[in-house]
Amino acid sequence: MTATTRVALVTGANRGIGRAVSDRLQTLGFQVVVTARDAEEAERAAAALGGAARPAVLDVSDEDAPARVRDEVGPVDIVVNNAGIQLDWGRAPSEVPVELVRRQFEVNVLGAWRMCQAFLPGMVERGWGRVVMVSSGTGAFSHGLSPQTPGYSVSKTALNALTVLMAAETAGTGVLVNAVNPGQVRTRMRPQAERLPEQAAEDIVWAATLPDDGPSGVFLRGREAVPW
Predict the structure, then answer these.
(1) Whole-angstrom Cα distance, residue 95 to residue 97?
(2) What's the sign of the alpha-carbon dihedral 42, 113, 198, 145?
(3) Is 156 a catalytic residue?
(4) Which of 44-48, 115-119, 181-185 has the lowest mean pLDDT?
(5) Which residue among 135, 136, 153, 155 is the active-site one?
(6) Residue 168 · residue 217 · CB < 8 Å
């Protein structure tokens, strides 16, 4: 199977890191499924990519949406779980509204979990697949959890744990599951950051296109495995 016959799906692909990842995958010859919660935004992003890019409406917080998209688009070989939200910047852990924490977990953790449940079985059956969790240094004990954004930070810690579990389950199947810390990237979430989405996309796409003997169940930063 070559890049031109492999399908890559990116969540939250209508802007920022997801848009840059989609563009890079398209450049490498993958058939890209561009997903967004809003149909017009998904269609606009796919049209901008051109080629074989396809739009799909996907809200990862919708319990049934990942399976619905799977049935709509067919087999997918690469899933980049990029969709994420941060709602609690500046809130102390002792006073952050639990509702904000719950909403972040719904997207950042359960959304990725739903995507894995929808697409991993098919990858295992076909004997090849790559799943990339777009995580954060704020979710790593080695880096230091962030008390400035507690719900987001803990959600990324949970995403890292999910990465380890999914990698263990798929060991030896031809499917690789890894998490990437892209660093602080200039997006709507971090408009003052110096790193561009295109730079972060290079590392994420590298993880999404690892060779068959590549690592699985690791936390990557700048293409190097770092401690959880």
Answers:
(1) 6
(2) positive
(3) yes
(4) 181-185
(5) 135
(6) yes
Closest-CA residue to 208 (of 14, 5, 21, 43): 21
**Residue 75 Cα distances to 8, 9, 17, 148, angstroms:** 9, 10, 23, 40
In total, how many domains does the chain have? 1
Burial of 160: CB neighbours in 10 Å, binned 0-12, 13-18, 19+: buried
Q: Which pLDDT score is estimated for 192?
A: 65
The CATH code of the domain that includes 45 is 3.40.50.720
Does the reported pTM lie above 0.90? yes
Strands, sheet with 7-10, edge to edge from the N-terminal-most edge strand? 54-57, 31-36, 7-10, 78-81, 129-134, 175-180, 219-221, 224-226
Task: For residue 211, give its domain range.
Answer: 3-226
Q: What is the pLDDT of residue 188?
A: 64
Sequence-separated (6 or more) residues with CB below 8 Å from residue 107? 60, 61, 83, 84, 85
Which residue in 22, 136, 152, 155 is the catalytic one? 152
Rg (CA), the chain: 16
More confident residue, 78 or 194: 78
Count the residues in the chain: 228
φ, ψ of residue 142 to 5 degrees: the values are -65, -30
The one catalytic residue in 136, 146, 155, 156 is: 156
